[in-house]
Design brief:
By secondary structure, the protein is mainly alpha-helical. It is 55% helix and 0% strand. The chain is built from six helices and no strands. α2 crosses α3, α4 crosses α5 and α5 packs across α6.
Length: 108
Amino acid sequence: MQRRLTEFDIDELVNAYLAGSSIDALAAEFRLNRTTIISLLTRRGIDRRKSVRKMNDHSVLEAAKHYGAGEPLKIVAARFDVDARTLAREFKRADIETRPRHGWPDRA
């Protein structure tokens, strides 16, 4: 079931975004899909903020040391205050191989 927002809700969402809330945070708060949030912002003429890289090359290499020592990706990501998907993307960008996810068959 799709959730309908009132104009007041949309105003709150836009104001929260302009005050610095991320699209992911708004999606969770308003129980909407990211694409819906982006669409609402676009309809209101709000430009999206540029995505800023959350890790630098040095921190990626430091994270890789922890990961290489056997720590799970999710734990290493938390240590560096990023989402596991962000860390996985940074590892891929740096050609650092990741282990298959626990419980999921290896996709060959």
